[in-house]
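Retro notes - structure team

What went well: the batch runner handled both jobs without manual restarts.
What didn't: labels got mixed up in the shared folder, which is why I'm recording both outputs here explicitly, each with its sequence directly above its C-alpha cells.

Job 1
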Amino acid sequence: MSLVTDAILEKLNSLIVVVNPKGDVEYVSPSAKRILGFEPEQLVGDGWWNLTRDNVEDRQSIKALTLQQMKQEALLETAPQERLLKTANGSERWILWNTSKGPLNTLVGIGHDITDRKKAELKLLEKNTELIQHNKDMLDSIQYASRIQEAILPDVQQIKNVFKDAFVFYQPKDVVSGDYYFFYQRGNKAFVVAVDCTGHGVPGALMSFIANGALKEVIIKKGIENPADILYALDDELYLALNKSKDGVVSIDGMDVAVGVFDFETQTFSYAGAFRPVLVVRDNELIELEASRYPIGFYADVKKVFITQTIEVKQDDTFYFFTDGYCDQFGGERKKKFNRKQFKELLLSAQDMEMDEQEAYLQYVLLNWRQDEPQVDDVLVMGIKF
C-alpha cells in the first residue's frame, strides 16, 4: 500500500482484514493500531485469531466460518455480523463486519467500530430489563393487594343467606377497585353499604381499605345503627384517617356512600346516602330514595346534612345499591354514557328474572353496550330481594 493510502486507512474508523485461502491473515489496515491498539504486523498470520480473542473455541469457530465462506464459488450476500474483539490493553470493542470475495480467492472483511452504539444499546437493554422487573414487581404487588381486597369483601353467599335472594355485580376497572361493599348482621338488623371511593385502581383501593376500617369502627365497634348517624361518624373517621400530617394541608379524598339498614322485626328499611341513591322496585314500579348532596370527606369546613329515610318493606321488594360506574360507561352507536334513566329501565325490564339471572343480564348488557370501548370506572351493582 502507498503511504497516502496507509495514511487514509489509518484515520478510518474501520478495519480492513484480508484472509488468504489457507486461513492466514495477509493484511490488516493501519487503523488497527488506533481501534485495537495492536500494530498491524502483530495481527498478520495467526496473530489476528489469537490476539483478538481469548476463547479458544471462539478462535476456531470464527476461523472455520471464514474458511467455509472462501470455499463458496460466489459469496452469498449475508447480513452484517457483530463481533466482540479484545484490544491490546484488555478492553473490548464491538465491530460490525461485512465480508466479500477479494482477488486470488481471498476474503476481505470490512469492520466498523460500533462500540459506542453497542454500549448505548446494552445500557438501554439493561434499563429495559430493570423496567420490566420493576413492572413485574409492581404488578405482583397489585395482584397481592387484589387478593387482600377480595378477602375484606363480604361473602355474597352470606348476603343471600340473610335475604330471600341477592346478587353482587362487582367489576373493577383495574386489578384493584375503588368500589367497595359492606355487609353486617346484628340481631334482627342487617346493614348494607355501597361505597364509591375517589379514583380507581391503586388509589381507589387504598381508600376502600380505609372505608372498610371506618365502617367496622362505626357499625360494629361503636354500634351506630341510624344510617344518617353512620354517615356523620364515617365523615369524622375519614377526616381523622386522612389528615394526620402536621403541614396543615387538608386531604381532598373522599367517597360516595349509600347506607341501608333492614329491620326484620319492624319490616322496615332505613336509608341515608352521601351522593349515592338507592333504587327500590315494588310491583314493577321504581322508587328512588335520593341521597344528600354531600360526600364523605372533601368539604371539611361545610356543615353537612344527612337524612335518614324509612319505608315499610313489602314482600318481594327489590333494593338496588350501585356506584356510578355502570351509568357512566360510554358505548352504544353514539358512544355516549349509559346514563341513569336507561339504567332504571334496565332494572325494571329484569324483574321477572331470578337475581342470579339479573346479574348475568346486567353484565351482558354492559358488555354489549361498550363493545370495544374501554371500561371507564369500577362497576358495582348490588341487588337484594326482601
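Job 2
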Amino acid sequence: MNLPMSRIEVMKFLGQKIDELVNEFLKPIDKNWQPADFLPDSSSEKFMEEVKLLQESCKELPYDYMAVLIGDTITEEALPTYESWLMTVEGIDQVNEPAGWSKWVRWWTAEENRHGDLLNKYLYLSGRVNMREMETSTQYLIADGFDIGTGVDPYRNFVYTSFQELATNISHRRTATLSKQYGNNQLSKICGMIAADEMRHAKAYKTFVERIFEVDPSEMMLAFEDMMKKKIVMPAHFLRESGVKMSQTFSHFSDAAQRLGVYTTYDYIQILEDLIAEWKIENMGGFNDAAERARDYVIALPNRLKRIAERTKVPQLEYEFSWITR
C-alpha cells in the first residue's frame, strides 16, 4: 500500500507528544488493577470455599451468556496478534524511537493483557468451561492472524481501533449488566472494570483521529470512508473451534451476542453515528473534492445500514459450542 507522505509526517508530528497521550489515557502500572484483585487468593485458607462460591454464582449463567463471555475472553487473549499488527503500522518505529509511538503500543498492550488473563482464570475456576477447547481456539486465533483491511496505514488503523475499542466497551459493559441481573456481582465487577479500560482506550484512539483531522482532513476523511466501505471486522470474526470452519464459529458467536443484546447490528450503527458526531464530520471544512464525496458517503451510511438491519433476522436456536461443558 503506497501511502501519501503526509500521513507519515503527521504520525511523526503527533508522536512527539506520545508521553502526554500515555499519561492522559493510560494508568500508572503500580496503581492499576490486576487480575489477582478480583480472584480467590490461592494462598488463603478460604481458597476452596471461595472457589465453591464462585462456581455457585456461575451455575445460573445462561448458555448464550457463557458462549459470549468465552468468545470475548479468546479475543482478549489473542493480544500478541494485535501488538505485532500495530507495530507494523507506518510511522511506528520500534527501533529508532523507543519513546515514540512504539511506547504507546507497548503500554496499551500491557493494559489490555490484564483482560484476557483475568477472564481466563475466572472461567477456569467457574467449572463450566472445557478449557482445552477454549485454549485451542485461542491458539488458532493467534496462529491464524487476521486481515482487517487496514494494511500498514496509520489513519485506517486508528479508525479501526476507535471503532473496535468502543465495540468491546459495549460488549463488556453489557455482560457486566447481565451478570448482575443473574446474581453474579463478582463477574459484573470484573466485566465492568474491563469495560472502563476499553472506554479509556477508545477515547485515546478517537483523540488520535481528531488530531489528524485537524492537520490532514482530506486524507483522514478518505481513510474513514475506506474503512466503512470495507466494514469494520472485529477480531472475533476470526474465531474457530477445532474441526469447525472459522466463519461458522463466528456466526454462532454473533447470533448468541445478538440474542442477548450484548452487541448487535444496531450497536455497530450507533458507534458509526457517534464517531461522525464526535469528529464533527458534517461541519468540518478543508476537504478536497474526493474527501467531500467521502464525507457524503459516510454521513449517508447509517440510514442505509438501518434499512438492512430491519430486514435481518437473528436465528433463535442455540448452537452447541465445544467450549462449554454445562
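One thing worth noting from job 2: The mean pLDDT is 93.
We'll revisit the folder naming next retro.
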